Amino acid sequence: xxxxxxxxxxxxxxxxxxxxxxxxxxxxxxxxxxxxxxxxxxxxxxxxxxxxxxxxxxxxxxxxxxxxxxxxxxxxxxxxxxxxxxxxxxxxxxxxxxxxxxxxxxxxxxxxxxxxxxxxxxxxxxxxxxxxxxxxxxxxxxxxxxxxxxxxxxxxxxxxxxxxxxxxxxxxxxxxxxxxxxxxxxxxxxxxxxxxxxxxxxxxxxxxxxxxxxxxxxxxxxxxxxxxxxxxxxxxxxxxxxxxxxxxxxxxxxxxxxxxxxxxxxxxxxxxxxxxxxxxxxxxxxxxxxxxxxxxxxxxxxxxxxxxxxxxxxxxxxxxxxxxxxxxxxxxxxxxxxxxxxxxxxxxxxxxxxxxxxxxxxxxxxxxxxxxxxxxxxxxxxxxxxxxxxxxxxxxxxxxxxxxxxxxxxxxxxxxxxxxxxxxxxxxxxxxxxxxxx
Length: 438
What we know:
Elements: H1 6-9, H2 12-42, H3 44-48, H4 54-85, H5 88-107, H6 112-115, H7 118-146, H8 154-180, H9 184-191, H10 193-197, H11 199-210, H12 217-224, H13 232-239, H14 241-272, H15 277-305, H16 307-320, H17 322-329, H18 334-360, H19 368-382, H20 387-397, H21 403-422
């Protein structure tokens, strides 16, 4: 289908198609990204860092995990520039290709035992490429939805893009859990590779769907009038520095909390509580289903009551649950662990659901891809990328006790509460085709 039909792009059927394409593509990209996190927690320390002691190997594995987060702001700025200059749709297709191919190549990587130090070097390189791709994907997927359809449903519609994250997590953990049932020797030899190799099939599905949608009508009008910003990055820094900083602060608790509840807890339960890896993986599967349901619900609430109210409620709930979360996990009981992760992810969802529409509404159409991506992705290395590494260090510093990690969560929640409190309410904003946010 052609990109040049903005009138047709606003029809209800077209809006549904855009939401579906953004959701499915985001699910596939986050499947790729989350596979790495699960493997980093359970496998990579033994296959790529076998000469280190268990703690050092785990920290090295999480350090390679963090590389993907460092790459995300770079991807956000690069793809944001071209997305604001050339269009949202072409960037969506490009980022999906980058993610799918890099994930497949991780699945065929030789291990340290086969090629020595070249193995972790190649792993870090491919992780950087993964982060670069996912850094550019979010802004395009969100804007394709936000810039279509009715303004009174932007929170709900954009939340389906956010729902692609638990869907990707659910898919990644389901596949990884299935292959982790293999005998340990077979799993470490070849079983862990299969989930990465399957990414190439998902890539084909995602490309087929994304190539069949229209360009954003708001951007199409801007492009027809030749009103694109010459250098979107510089215009964002000049016109919207406060909004970028507030978006970064708003992400701190949400982003770090998510990776503590889904990645760090895997290592903690397996290493410190000596639980089988399948126990925590099963808990994550159930919690991801609940999160998938919660995100659209909170997105709809943000349309009715405002982005800030829903966001602030989630941040406050996450802070209040920081200590109880670890008390429940420390019981080493699968039921309590599952309940703890579910409650934590529902609180996190109240922040994550309105985020897509909220951040997009802070910037004008001509720099919206760059601005929203900068606010979203610049927080990634500071919050989610470092969170598992910081938590492992805090755990060691506190002699295996989790109170330091809980305090860390509370501090991040306080930063988010202040940032959201200072931000403007945007849920009734009109997104025109000019260069000003509402």
